[in-house]
Amino acid sequence: MTTALSIDTIIQRIAYLQGKDGLFPSVRRNDALGYRRADTNVFFTAITVFTLQTVRARVSPIAQTLIDQITQRATITYPIFRNKDGLNTYNFWPTRPSRHFPNGYLFHRFEHFRIPDDIDDTAMVYLTTTQPQSEALWLKDKLSQHANGSQRHQIRNTYPEYRQLRAYSTWFGKNMGVDFDACALSNLLYCIYQYKLPMNEHDTDSLTYLRLVVESGRYVSEPFCCAPHYARTSLIIYHLARLMAAFAISELKPIRPRLIADAHHQLTNATNRVEQLLLATALGWLGEPVPAINLNEIEQDFDTFHFFIAGLLTAYEQPWLRRFADRPLTQMRWQCEAHCWALVAEYVVMYDV
């Protein structure tokens, strides 16, 4: 690894980027449409805090204090994104009032583009705060109510052999179609294991889904279909490796060799250094030597890296619309400088172990 960056310097940069409101700025963009807007969401703030918390034990006392201050300022903002009716689930955007597609000119005017609460944001809020066990158990029941096959909810937008899996859906909304996303499921399962919640068929089937998309190779050949909100093999590897490193999950052990082999292959082909270090970190979690990545002026690669996408046609179940859902023209891509630096910090800590 070639870099003059210290972990303390990286943490200081992240602290500097935190807004006065406690949130980390992010942008949504569609370069094909010439579209770029500042975005107000809880997702990038929560995942940045989560990443910092996972490295906290391995940094200096000064950096630990900074991480604690960042966390305190961030978590104060979470109620803004809490369920509009006061339930303990969370939305990507502010809810009372709803501010979907903030700072835009068109999409925020249409109720159609207002999204329900989701498992990704909810899991990350729970993981970066200390929720009472009663609330965690309530969430577990809430998740079951919206899982595939529950309350007449049946997934249509996945492979036929996965449609009977009673896995968790990305969305909590009653009128939203069921959606399987390998990365979001990995985050949710991380939360469930972290809170030591009782396992049920939804957990088992969610793990089965994760195993099958890897064993089948579909997460390499069709990553959008396996994780429509992340849509890249490297990100699926990253999320699965993080989950498997944190918890001993017997159902996922068979896919470890495949993940390692595919991570090495993806690393060879990746041109963006943020994506490279993300894969290198994943290899470390999977028990492999951590490859060296050149971090000199790594921020130059931030602008061409995105961690999360929103497909404007992803929610539609009609096959003729879904046919266009994986095309860049119909997608928004989100970027966050602070989170990119958190990924760098995570890699530096992993590389120095």
Written account of the structure:
The model is unreliable at 108-112 and 320-325 (pLDDT under 50). 45% of the residues lie in helices and 5% in strands. 44% of the residues are buried. Strand 1 and strand 2 (35-39) form a beta hairpin. With 353 residues, the protein is mainly α. It has helices at 7-17, 43-55, 61-75, 119-127, 133-145, 182-194, 201-215, 218-221, 223-226, 233-246, 256-269, 273-285, 319-322, 337-352; strands at 26-30, 35-39, 308-311, 331-335.
In DSSP terms (H or I, runs of 4 or more residues), the helix count works out at 14
SSE topology string = HEEHHHHHHHHHHHEHEH
How many beta-strand runs?
Answer: 4
The secondary structure category is mainly alpha
Radius of gyration: 19 Å
Number of spatially distinct domains: 1
Q: In this structure, how is the largest beta sheet organized? A: 4 strands, antiparallel
CATH class: Mainly Alpha
Reading side by side through the largest sheet, how are the strands ordered? 2-1-4-3
Q: Stretches where pLDDT falls below 50 for ≥5 residues?
A: 108-112, 320-325
Shape: globular
Would you tell me which CATH topology applies? Glycosyltransferase
The average pLDDT is 90
Could you estimate the helical fraction of the residues in percent?
A: 40-55%
User: What's the end-to-end separation, in Å?
Assistant: 13 Å
| Corresponding CATH architecture | Alpha/alpha barrel
- What percentage of the residues does DSSP assign to strands (E)? 5-15%
